[in-house]
Specification:
- This protein has 93 residues and is of the alpha+beta class.
- It has one domain.
- The longest helix has 19 residues.
- The radius of gyration is 13 Å and the shape is globular.
- The protein starts with a helix and ends in a 7-residue tail after the last helix.
């Protein structure tokens, strides 16, 4: 994988989303395996089975199954969507 300004921007978006989700009470951990696309591992600490990965690429946040979550520039909207999905007993998105 080539690490360029686009990769750095994707990492920065994931870091911002992680900070926003942490502020909302979720656990978020940036995963950066060598030679692979980084992702944000997010977990609801009140319901540990409620966990999901989020990627950032091409100006968007993405679910692992390639559905868009929200534009990377709209961290609050992305955090709200992820939180809704991971909320135990909450809505399904």
């Amino acid at each position: 994988m080539v690490y360029d300004s686009t990769h750095a921007a994707d990492l920065a978006h994931l870091e911002k989303l992680g900070a926003e989700l942490t502020a909302r009470g979720f656990e978020a951990h940036l995963v950066t395996p060598p030679g692979k696309q980084p992702w944000l591992a997010v977990r609801n600490p009140r319901a540990v089975v409620m966990a999901e990965d989020v990627m950032a690429q091409a100006g968007w946040f993405w679910w692992p199954w390639a559905d868009r979550i929200a534009p990377a520039a709209d961290v609050a909207a992305a955090a709200a969507r992820v939180a809704a999905v991971l909320r135990a007993g909450g809505s399904d998105g």
